[in-house]
Specification:
The protein has 316 residues and is of the alpha+beta class. It has 2 domains: 12-99, Nucleic acid-binding proteins (OB fold (Dihydrolipoamide Acetyltransferase, E2P)); 103-292, no CATH class. It is built from 11 helices and 7 strands. The strands form 2 sheets. A 5-stranded mixed beta barrel has the order 1-2-3-5-4. A hairpin with a 2-residue loop joins strand 2 (33-41) and strand 3 (44-50). Helix 2 crosses helix 5 and helix 10 packs parallel to helix 11 (271-295). The chain is elongated, with a radius of gyration of 22 Å. The two termini are 28 Å apart. Residues 21-89 form the OB domain. Residues 163-283 form the HD domain. It comes from Brevibacillus gelatini. InterPro entries: HD/PDEase_dom, HD_domain, NA-bd_OB-fold, NA-bd_OB_tRNA, YhaM_exoribonuc/phosphodiest.
């Protein structure tokens, strides 16, 4: 059975390939330089200390580089960390699989994609179907959607996590639609698919994602609406089309009321927009909570969940 970084316990030796997620340099009391590294593989991330760093090491150890380490696990202030004894860059001959270095959705990507395609096929609106088909047929967008996470830290923050989030929302939406006939089915499904499409350009990459300059200056809600507008122009769909306006409204309001300060450009003003906001909240929060509970050790009863900004109880 393959052993990953977070599987090792205090005192154990770790010889493994991992991905450099973050890097900070420091100077020790003896004036020697050291590095604080955040290293990751598919089990998650762990902090590591590398002492007596040479200028050459500082140059080739970079964020998003793959390295092989020989390290010891120690516990510092209640948390496991690695003390690196030896480190080298991975070589092509090592044949390291990227899927072993980053957390991955537990649902196969092809299974998720098939569910997405089936939903698009079921749309009755020719306008919304055309917009989504254009999105999915664009090679760059399609490839990003099959790989990108839904975020850097908060929820579905793993390989093809955004696609998992979309399909989870579609499943939840389908379950609730019969209870709320005032909701527009096709606009709701289109919002599930496109609400975070701007994240494909708000985030830098699927391996060690950070926020891009456009992502920080504009944000994924506005970026997503810009993408929808661009597609409408390409397909000669009027920007004033009622379904297009409704879709854009749902995207721009899906972070909730403007007064909350969570990033919405406008507060939800239709049943569809309001329902989608709460669906998105449920799915994102439950995913983040699930990750928090999964990361807890057997003897932990409480843990802090960043997405909820509070400690949560595991229960029985």
């Amino acid at each position: 059975m393959t052993k990953y970084l977070l599987d090792y316990q205090e005192g154990e030796r770790v010889v493994a390939f991992c991905l450099v997620k973050n890097k900070e340099a420091g100077v020790a009391s003896n004036q020697s330089e050291y590095l604080n590294l955040e290293l990751g593989d598919r089990s998650g991330t762990i902090m590591a200390k590398l002492w007596d760093v040479s200028p050459e090491m500082k140059e080739w150890i970079t964020v998003k580089s793959v390295v092989k380490i020989d390290a010891l696990v120690q516990v510092y202030r209640g948390k496991k960390q690695l003390v690196i004894q030896r480190i080298r860059p991975a070589a092509a001959s090592d044949e390291v699989m990227m899927e072993s270095l980053i957390p991955v959705s537990p649902v196969p990507v092809d299974e998720l994609w098939a569910k997405l395609e089936a939903t698009v096929d079921s749309l009755k609106s020719s306008t919304l179907k055309a917009i989504i088909r254009e999105v999915l047929s664009t090679e760059e967008i399609r490839e990003r959607l099959r790989h990108f996470p839904a975020g850097v830290r908060m929820h579905h923050n793993y390989y093809h996590g955004l696609l998992e989030h979309i399909v989870s929302l579609l499943t939840a939406a389908q379950s609730l639609l019969s209870l709320y006939p005032q909701v527009d089915r096709d606009v709701l499904y289109a919002t599930c698919i496109l609400h975070d499409i701007g994240k494909l350009y708000e985030l830098s990459d699927p391996i060690a994602p950070d926020y891009t300059t456009p992502g920080q200056l504009i944000g994924h809600l506005v970026m997503g609406v810009e993408m929808v507008s661009g597609i409408c122009r390409k397909l000669d769909i009027p920007l004033g089309d009622a379904e297009v306006l409704h879709l854009k409204h749902c995207i721009l309001s899906h972070h909730g009321e403007v007064e909350n300060g969570w990033g919405s450009a406008v507060s939800g003003k239709t049943p569809t927009a309001i329902l989608f906001h709460y669906l998105d909240q449920i799915d994102s929060k439950m995913n983040a909570l699930g990750q928090t509970l999964a990361d807890m050790s057997e003897d932990e009863e409480w843990a802090y969940a960043g997405a909820l900004r509070r400690k949560v109880w595991r229960g029985y």
